[in-house]
Design brief:
CATH class of one domain in chain C: Alpha Beta
CATH superfamily of the largest domain in chain A: Beta-grasp domain
Oligomer: heterotrimer
CATH class of the largest domain in chain A: Alpha Beta
Strand order of the largest sheet of chain A: 2-1-5-3-4
Structural class of chain A: alpha+beta
Chains: A alpha+beta (about 160), B alpha+beta (about 80), C alpha+beta (about 750)
Helix content of chain C: 25-40%
Chain lengths: ~160, ~80, ~750
């Protein structure tokens, strides 16, 4: 077993993991953070998206041991206590989720997008999200929610 | 007595008929009446049927009423996804 | 239970876009899906699967696996009940192979161990001795004389004499005189179409946590129908149904694929053997190989039309393979094929064929999309050859109230014409096309369903309400149920909490399928609420000393019916519920029935596409869904169903297919090579909700979830044909297929 010290959503945490365990396994099974989901295990669906030192990654393609000394951001860290992030508010308002399984990954991905590119076009949003599969919505309401959030955040700043 | 329309693939089991008269007041009696008149229909009914009564598709209920002038069609049982 | 004309003008909550109650949990990661729970002492399971498409199982030796440190138990078919017959036996056979492995990925044994990694290592140590047999995966090949027999003696009495043993069921329906009908046509077109199997593609793999005790058990699983899971698992484990309590988790997509059981009985069997809770989660590859994709099809359609655009005769033969078990939905393919048309002379034939593939499961309007692909394509071709407009022709032949359906009965009130008329005036239909773009049109149809439904509405002492339904929420239905209850009770939507109850808490509920939830659970919710309101009125009447008939319920209050009933101040619900314990007892409304009267749903789709003639790649540039919803309880969620179904249809039309190798093994069991639409593939999807009330529901609701997947296949084929000048009759219309068609056309 490998002893890992890392930071998740700003909190210092530690866990033991098998060398073969992925970061996704570690988050879900060792730290009980079940927000990130395994949809494919091969980096094709994005349901396991997290940020690793600010970089958007598929946690199923990262080993648990690689989290050592890094900062991880998951969906559980997006809201500020009771206060939802504007993206989360807009997703609910726009019905941008149906079953909700892809939602954590998409929220992590779009938060990352808006932090890097505050004024994306519809095409940019769609290509940024090309690694996050959704089978329920057809992406329409998701893209609308993201565009509107981007506009609101620009107004606020 | 009510007239029950069978799908054409069932004709072979009802002496070539595609409309069969049975004495019935509800869907359950329609089905048992059909089997009583033509035992060869039993396998199809056991496999599952829905009954359309005056355009309304009864997926499974046997207690739904049928009247002498009801339009009744036998259909293979409906399921969805 | 019938449509309530008085309500239609005065909805206060129904028809508004409320926030769904489970939204918060789903955007924060709190919501618990199938794989998100744990239990003390839990073991992890893994499944041993056949690498052969067809093989006799000679021997299973699990000794090395059992010896591995951390392995606590192994199960094979011997650990399941014997003596099952019919449908139950088919399900068991699919869940755990008996004498033969019938497809690549068929489960033959399973292991439980103290960690998921150990379980994964252990399955590699289970030695299975196979006698490999010849296999067949193609539907037409499986019907030929020399095809290997997959399961002898499975055909039922409906199959005509002389067919191969792999043909197990037969359907034939229709009416009129085909010969005369075709003779009266000015143009007859006859074509053959093929579609490959597709998968529902839900992002959440099947997952469950099973805990067996002394003759009883608890099961947590992601499913569209937990009573059905209870029934099937009880049969397969030899348990009494009530001894197995099943709780439905949040579900990450189903679309019909989670109406069956695959791993649940296995987890229960392992739990029973090890006497510990067992968690079983499928990998994505296992989901593709060993759950329930659609049938693949081979279809012949012949349609005759006169110069005026009237269809004079139509005939269709539909061959579907549903895996190594009977059940391919060929009768629905047959019945849906010509449903949008009022045709005097029509005949449809269906064949259910076995193949060495996994047991098919429902996928949104099972059987109907393939039929629409074939029939709508021929209708469009006839329109082109006769120089007629696609929507005009469809309107001329449209099924409407009073006309005879292709499968027999006379139609009640339906909304096909309204969707066609809406399409005609929609700006999309007249919008100019750029060079290289083509437009396509198609209709689609699905029956929708009622089914066993039990709902309980319990009032709390503070006048708020707890609604328990038994239909897992696969599309946002919790919000719609609460809206309907709020409408009847006259209390705010936010004061009602909807819960999906477990099997021990409510009467039987049929699976969430057939677009039945808003219709059936909704109807039951309305009836349960009305029952509660009746009791509330009774308490007010008793308090006022007047007749119950002299009390009305308005805006969440009991009021005297008129001034001659007496001068009493309105009694709001919370005043009545605060005292309910002493005025007669707790107030609960409940309703159990098998409602019949689900309304059918028709749709018309318009799509614009452009084809890159160098790469064969198709881009969908504009899409409009026009569908009859009867009454949209929550328009945002109805739109979501329209858009989601259209997106799945687009994937099915352009990219998705099961690819089997010569060895009968699935070649593309992952999301990289089983290519579903991603965000950059699609445009915004416009929607128009048509509302032609369903006479069988108090508010006029029709199911909407399924029909939206029916038109896209033909609509896109039509758009591609108009954009590139080649008509494809085989799906998917992948780039390589379009390029071959273009090359072939250039050569000719």
């Amino acid at each position: 077993m490998i002893h890992v010290n890392t930071k998740v959503n700003g909190d210092e945490v530690e866990f033991l993991c098998d060398p073969r365990e992925t970061l996704l396994d570690a988050l879900r099974d060792r730290l009980n953070l079940t927000g990130a989901k395994e949809g494919c295990g091969t980096g094709d669906c994005g349901a396991c998206s997290v940020t690793l030192d600010g970089r958007l990654v598929c946690s199923c393609l990262v080993l648990g041991a690689e989290a050592e000394g890094k900062e991880i951001g998951t969906v559980e860290g997006i809201a500020n206590g009771e206060e939802l992030h504007p993206l989360q508010e807009k997703f609910i308002e726009h019905a941008a989720l149906q079953c909700g399984i892809c939602t954590p990954g998409i929220l992590v991905a779009t938060k990352s997008l808006l932090e890097k590119y505050p004024s994306p076009t519809e095409t940019q949003v769609r290509y940024w999200l090309a690694g996050n599969l959704c089978r329920c919505t057809g992406y329409d309401k998701i893209v609308r929610a993201v565009m509107e959030t981007a506009a609101d955040l620009r107004k606020a700043s | 007595m009510v007239s029950v329309n069978l799908w054409s693939g069932l004709r072979a089991f009802a002496d070539g008929k595609d409309v069969v008269e049975v004495d019935a007041k509800n869907v359950g009696e329609v089905l048992s009446g059909l089997v009583a008149a033509y035992p060869g229909l039993e396998h199809a009914i056991e496999a599952g049927v829905s009954v359309a009564v005056d355009g309304k598709v009864i997926a499974r209920g046997l207690t739904n009423e049928v009247k002498p002038d009801s339009e009744i069609y036998l259909l293979q049982q409906l399921k969805g996804g | 239970m019938a449509f309530d004309d008085t309500k239609i003008e005065n909805f206060k909550v129904v028809g508004t876009r409320v926030k769904r109650p489970d939204g918060m949990d789903k955007v924060t990661g709190k919501a618990k899906f199938g794989a998100d729970v744990v239990a003390p002492g839990m073991l992890h399971a893994a499944v041993v699967r056949s690498p052969h498409a067809h093989a006799r199982i000679i021997k299973i030796d699990a000794s090395k696996a059992e010896a591995l440190k951390g392995v606590k138990g192994v199960v094979t078919r011997a650990d399941f009940a014997e003596g099952l017959t019919g449908g139950n036996l088919d399900v068991l056979e699919n869940v755990m192979a008996g004498e033969k492995a019938l497809y690549d990925g068929h489960a033959v044994a399973a292991v439980a161990a103290t960690s998921a990694l150990i379980a994964r290592d252990a399955i590699k140590l289970v030695k299975v001795e196979y006698e490999v047999l010849p296999h067949v995966t193609d539907v037409d090949k499986a019907m030929k004389k020399d095809a290997p027999v997959i399961r002898a003696g499975t055909a039922d009495k409906s199959v005509p004499l002389g067919m191969h043993e792999n043909v197990v069921r037969y359907h034939e329906s229709g009416h009129g005189d085909l010969e005369a009908g075709f003779a009266a046509a000015d143009m007859v077109i006859e074509e053959t179409f093929k579609t490959e199997a597709t998968h529902q593609g839900y992002i959440e793999p099947h997952a469950c946590l099973a805990s067996m005790g002394d003759g009883n058990g608890d099961l947590w699983c992601c499913t569209q129908g937990h009573w059905n899971v209870q029934k099937l698992c009880a049969a397969m484990l030899g348990l009494e149904q009530s001894q197995l309590r099943v709780t439905a988790s949040e579900i990450g997509g189903g679309f019909g694929g989670k109406t069956a059981v695959f791993i649940e009985p296995v987890a229960l069997a392992l739990s029973r053997k090890t006497n510990r809770p067992v968690k079983l989660v499928m990998s994505r590859s296992e989901v593709f190989r060993a759950t329930g994709p659609t049938s693949s099809t081979s279809m012949d359609v012949k349609i005759g039309m006169n110069k005026e655009g009237i269809i004079t005769a139509a005939e269709g033969t539909f061959r579907l393979q549903g895996g190594a078990f009977p059940g391919a939905p060929m009768e629905f393919t047959a019945m849906c094929a010509f449903a949008p048309y009022n045709i005097e002379n029509v005949k449809q034939i269906g064949y259910d064929v076995l193949a060495n593939r996994p047991k098919q499961a429902a996928y949104r309007a099972p059987g109907s999309p393939m039929a629409a692909f074939a029939v709508e394509s021929v209708v469009n071709e006839l329109c082109d050859k006769l120089g007629l407009d696609r929507l005009e022709v469809r309107l001329k032949n449209a099924s409407k109230q009073g006309t005879k359906a292709s499968f027999g009965p006379t139609w009640d009130r339906i909304g096909l014409v309204e969707t066609l008329e809406a399409a005609q005036i929609h700006p999309h239909y007249a919008a100019p096309l750029k060079a290289g773009q083509g437009r396509g049109v198609s209709c689609g149809f699905w029956f929708n369903h009622g089914g066993e439904t039990s709902v309980t509405l319990a009032l709390s002492e503070d006048g708020t309400a707890q609604l328990s339904v038994g239909t897992p929420d696969i599309g946002g239905s919790r919000a719609s149920m609460a809206q309907m209850a709020a409408e009847e009770l006259g209390i705010p939507y936010e004061n009602i909490r909807t819960t999906i109850a477990d099997t021990a808490t409510l009467g039987y509920n049929e699976v969430s399928h057939g677009s039945r939830v808003t219709y059936a659970s909704g109807l039951a919710t309305i009836e349960a609420a009305r029952a509660a309101v009746k009791k509330l009125k009774g308490r007010a009447a008793a308090k006022w000393g007047i007749d119950e008939d002299a009390v009305v319920w308005e805006d969440g209050c009991a009021k005297p019916a008129g001034s001659n009933a007496g001068e009493f101040d309105p009694l709001p619900i919370e005043k009545l519920t605060a005292k309910m314990g002493s005025t007669g007892g707790p107030i609960v409304g409940h309703f159990e029935a098998t409602p019949e009267g689900a309304g059918v749903s028709f749709a018309t789709h318009i799509v614009d596409a452009e084809v890159d003639k160098e790469t064969g790649h198709t881009k969908v540039v504009r899409y409009t869904v026009i569908q009859d919803a009867g009454k949209a309880i929550n328009p945002a969620y109805v739109e979501g169903q329209f858009q989601g179904g259209a997106a799945q249809g687009i994937g099915w039309a352009l990219n998705e297919e099961y690819i089997y190798g010569k060895d009968g093994r699935l070649q593309n069991s992952g999301f990289l090579d089983y290519r579903i639409p991603v965000a950059s593939d699609l445009p915004m999807i416009d929607t128009v909700i048509v509302e032609v009330p369903n006479p069988g529901h108090p508010y006029g609701v029709r199911g909407v979830g399924e029909t939206s997947i029916c038109p896209p296949l033909a609509a896109i084929a039509d758009a591609v044909s108009n954009a590139a000048g080649v008509q494809l009759k085989e799906l998917p219309m992948s780039p390589q297929r379009i390029l071959s068609a273009l090359t072939e056309q250039a050569r000719v």
